[in-house]
Inverse folding.
């Protein structure tokens, strides 16, 4: 049984969210909720929150692996992260991000990479960035039977060519091009589209002209859903702090305080205390010592 709005079955368990449920939410019901997740703990947190979609994003390159940009993450690293996320999810749609270099060169490469991502991580669908040749790649992947989420606006894999991590579609020409690209991705079968770092008014116009859901990140409130990076929304102290991020926790500060307190306790011999250890019967202890 699949619910269209995060409904629950008679057993009380949440119904598995399917692609048909995501598409059906276009313009109806509450906005879609998507978060990134990169490991088992973040996946279980997303599962418990009953989000609709979980993206194993290539932003893991920066948030989890310490790279300066997403373009440096390898396919093998994404596979490891994806498997971990899959083990923590049951109900949301799991989206596997296709890293740079795994789809651009040809339709054949794109299909092979998408198939491998699905087979080796268990993700339900894949996501790729950009338009242009990416439209052809999306068409090929969809024709191979795999769902595709598009991604327009700021595309981190090619942010250097866009002038850095900057707002996109800020001119009339740029906004018109964004609409054309969105319609092109929809036409080849993408089931949803991420709009990143574009003016809210432009994202609203794009959303109104598409029959598939838009999921915004720094794209205003009129998109059909929203996505945030897990480490951003919980404030893990990422080096990049976009203005669209809202912190719903402060894990970075809590982690620093916790490790600092642990360090102080160990050095002052306050930890471990008696309650943190294990006992041996006195007779066995004496027998043990007598043999030394």
């Amino acid at each position: 049984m699949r619910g269209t709005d995060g409904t629950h079955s008679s057993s009380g368990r949440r119904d598995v969210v399917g692609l048909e449920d995501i598409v059906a939410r276009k313009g109806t019901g509450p906005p879609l909720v998507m978060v990134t997740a990169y490991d088992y703990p973040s996946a279980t947190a997303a599962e418990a929150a009953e989000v609709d979609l979980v993206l194993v994003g290539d932003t893991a390159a920066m948030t989890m692996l310490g790279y300066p940009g997403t373009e440096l993450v390898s396919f093998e690293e994404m596979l490891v992260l994806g498997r971990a996320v899959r083990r923590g999810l049951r109900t949301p749609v799991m989206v596997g991000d296709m890293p740079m270099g795994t789809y651009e060169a040809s339709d054949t490469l794109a299909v092979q990479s998408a198939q491998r991502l699905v087979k080796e991580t268990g993700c339900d669908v894949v996501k790729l960035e950009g338009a242009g040749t990416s439209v052809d790649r999306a068409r090929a992947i969809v024709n191979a039977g795999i769902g595709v989420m598009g991604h327009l606006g700021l595309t981190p894999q090619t942010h250097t060519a866009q002038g850095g991590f900057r707002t996109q579609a800020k001119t009339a020409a740029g906004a018109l091009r964004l609409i054309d690209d969105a319609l092109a991705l929809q036409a080849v079968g993408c089931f949803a589209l991420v709009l990143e770092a574009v003016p809210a008014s432009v994202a609203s116009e794009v959303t109104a002209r598409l029959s598939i859901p838009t999921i915004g990140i720094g794209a205003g409130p009129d998109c059909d859903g929203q996505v945030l990076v897990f480490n951003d929304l919980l404030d893990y102290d990422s080096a990049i702090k976009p203005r669209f991020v809202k912190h719903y926790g402060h894990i970075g500060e809590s982690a620093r305080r916790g490790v600092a307190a642990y360090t102080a306790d160990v050095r002052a011999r306050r930890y471990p205390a008696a309650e943190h250890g294990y006992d041996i019967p006195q007779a066995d202890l004496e027998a043990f010592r007598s043999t030394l």
